[in-house]
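Colleagues,

For the teaching module next term, I've prepared a clean inverse folding example: a structure given as tokens, and then the sequence designed for it. I'd like students to try predicting residues themselves before seeing the answer, so please don't circulate the second half yet.
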């Protein structure tokens, strides 16, 4: 169960980073 949370966390982080990069562009 913990691994699933980590994977979801990573997906959220990548999504957040992508949004941040687009905002800076």
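(Answer key — instructors only)
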């Amino acid at each position: 169960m913990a691994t699933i949370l980590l994977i979801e966390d990573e997906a959220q982080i990548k999504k957040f980073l992508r949004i941040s990069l687009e905002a800076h562009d």
